[in-house]
Amino acid sequence: MSFLEALKLAAASLRSHKLRSFLTLLGIIFGVATVIVVVSVIEGFNAYVDEKIANIGTNAFSVQKYSIDDFSSVEALNKARRRNKDVRLEDLEALKSMGGFVADAGGKTTTLADVKFRSEELLNVQINAMTPNIAEIENIEAESGRFFINAEEETRRFVCFLGSETAEKLFPTSDPIGRTIKVDGRTFKVVGVGKELGSAFGQTRDMYVSVPLRTFLAVYGLRRSISISVTSSSPATYEDAIEEARTLMRVRRKLGPSEKDNFGIVTPGAINELRDNIFGTIQVAAIGVTSISLVVGGIVIMNIMLVTVTERRKEIGIRKSIGAKHGDIIRQFLAESTALALVGGTIGVLIAYSLAKLIAFASPIPTALPFLWVTVALIVSSSVGLISGVYPAWKAANLDPIEALRSE
Questions:
Q1: Taking a C-beta distance cutoff of 8 angstroms, is the pair 170, 115 a contact?
Q2: Cβ 165 vs Cβ 248: under 8 Å
């Protein structure tokens, strides 16, 4: 018996018992659907983190008050608060002028403030204070107007760059470029509006006002820690630039060889490692728990196949009496159990795809459905069917044709 003929017989058997076949598939369907939905949510989050890392900038890393490790526990964070010094404007100037493998450095910090234009007022808007070169380092693009320039930063000019949503709410019917707004009661001139960034986890990324860092520090006080974005001269010198920046910061803080850094250097690799540490275990556990449904589905398929063998003893006896070989019977029932599971896996993938789209539409949770996982789901489901059909197929192939014909 050819493999194609075995598949045709399997399809005919499934069609003749549609309801029973569907009920048998439910375990596989739910198993595959839940696994794929869990994976799509986790992959969507990973894709979002990768996108945010990509927006950090080419060959960029950050020098700041705390490191990723400082957030591992409350105790570690409290120790870092006591140990770590603020990162100041002087550190930025030192990094920017050091040369070597460090190509550029820009400073930034944030706070919340009330923003107003005439009768329109927005409360608790994110204020991004930054040096002009941050726009290039972090790929900030203007939809209209421009970003503020070095001359405005150095002379502490009261100019600002608006997020697209901020501009839309403050200036719904007019062009904001050249207008003035109030930030905590202080007047700032609008010089540009940023391109729309969209939302992440239900939170908008376009509700902000960016101002020159030196202007911000002059208004809100110099005793404030900033974050410094540093770029290397090339991808090949990235690690060297990190070491140069670390050495400079340690020298400036007079740290001995055995003393721990009292500042943090955050890289995309460190962010990825933190993400993997947090979600890697969750992903394995979630997939493991949801995969129990696949095991249950396999047991159900085996049970139904055993019932099928009992019901079709006469058919098996007739086929063996007219020359069907041991391998032909095995192929017939293995093809049937595998086809049963593969159909269930396909339906499960379609349901999971629909659920993932619904989750992404109705909630702030990002989702992604990689083709690799779809392929893995179909291979696993068909493998479950194949394994579940081994014993029933072996039992059918070993039936004595005379005893089988006597069954009816």
A1: yes
A2: no
φ, ψ for residue 83 (rounded to 5)? -90, -45
| The predicted structure's pLDDT at residue 177 | 96
CA distance 153 to 159: 9
* Three-state secondary-structure class, residue 405: helix
pLDDT digits (tens, 9 = 90+) for 225-283: 999 999 998 889 999 999 999 999 999 999 988 888 889 898 877 777 776 776 677 77
State how far the Cα of 49 lies from the Cα of 54, in Å rounded to an integer.
Answer: 9
Handedness of CA 374, 281, 266, 210 (dihedral sign): positive
Question: What 8-state DSSP symbol labels residue 85?
Answer: P
Of residues 307, 319, 321, the one with CA closest to residue 391 = 307
Q: Alpha helices, DSSP H only, in 113-176?
A: 134-137, 150-154, 164-170
Cβ–Cβ under 8 Å, residues 7 and 335 = yes
Q: Are 389 and 330 in contact (CB under 8 A)?
A: no
227-232 vs 60-64, strand pairing mode = antiparallel
H runs (alpha helix) in 291-400: 292-311, 313-321, 326-362, 371-397
DSSP string, 226-247: -EEEEEESSGGGHHHHHHHHHH
Instruction: Locate the DSSP E strands across 118-185.
Output: 120-130, 142-145, 159-162, 180-183
Distance CA 230, CA 246 (A): 11
Question: Hey, what are 379's tokens?
Answer: 């291979």
- Give pTM, 2 decimals: 0.66
Task: Map out the domains of the chain as residue ranges.
Answer: 3-51+280-405, 85-262
Taking the C-alpha atoms of residue 384 and residue 338, their distance in angstroms, rounded to an integer, is 8
For residue 227, give both structure tokens: 């974050």
